[in-house]
Design the sequence.
C-alpha cells in the first residue's frame, strides 16, 4: 500500500559519498605523495584517508555545519562572557585532525635536540590537510594557524 504523498521514487541521486578512502581513491594525490615525499610511506595517509572519508566523519561534519558557532555575550546571571560556543562535533573534528598531527606534523619530529629534518614532512602534512578539508573545511583554519605559528 502506498504511503500518503508517496508520489514517486527518486532514482537520479548518487549514493552518499561515505566510507570512501580519500587517499587510496585519489590517484593524483597518491602519485604526488609518492613522488614528492622523499620515500615516506603512505600508510599513515591511507589510514587518515579512511578516517576522513568515513560515514562517521561525514555525520560529524554535517552536525558541525548545521549548528554554527554561537556568540554568548552573557551568562545566566548577566555577567559578561564574550565567548563563542562550538558544537561538540566541531571539537571532535579538531581532535581527529590534531590526533593525525596536522597541527604540527611539519615540525614535531624536530622537537628533540639534534633532530634531523624529515624529508617529505610538509608533503605528508599537506596531503593530510587536503583530505581534512574534504572532510570538513571549517576546522582547518585553526589547524593551519597552529602549524604556521612555528616558522
Sequence:
Amino acid at each position: 500500500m502506498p504511503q500518503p504523498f508517496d508520489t514517486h521514487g527518486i532514482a537520479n541521486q548518487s549514493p552518499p559519498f561515505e566510507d570512501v578512502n580519500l587517499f587510496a581513491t585519489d590517484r593524483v594525490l597518491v602519485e604526488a605523495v609518492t613522488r614528492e615525499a622523499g620515500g615516506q610511506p603512505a600508510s599513515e595517509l591511507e589510514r587518515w584517508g579512511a578516517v576522513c572519508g568515513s560515514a562517521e566523519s561525514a555525520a560529524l561534519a554535517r552536525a558541525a555545519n548545521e549548528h554554527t558557532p554561537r556568540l554568548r555575550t552573557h551568562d545566566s546571571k548577566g555577567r559578561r562572557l564574550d565567548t563563542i560556543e562550538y558544537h561538540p562535533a566541531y571539537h571532535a573534528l579538531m581532535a581527529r585532525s590534531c590526533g593525525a598531527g596536522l597541527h604540527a606534523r611539519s615540525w614535531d619530529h624536530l622537537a628533540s635536540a639534534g633532530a634531523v629534518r624529515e624529508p617529505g614532512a610538509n608533503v605528508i602534512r599537506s596531503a593530510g590537510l587536503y583530505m581534512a578539508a574534504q572532510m570538513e573545511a571549517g576546522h582547518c583554519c585553526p589547524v593551519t594557524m597552529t602549524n604556521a605559528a612555528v616558522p
User: Anything to note?
Assistant: The mean pLDDT is 92.
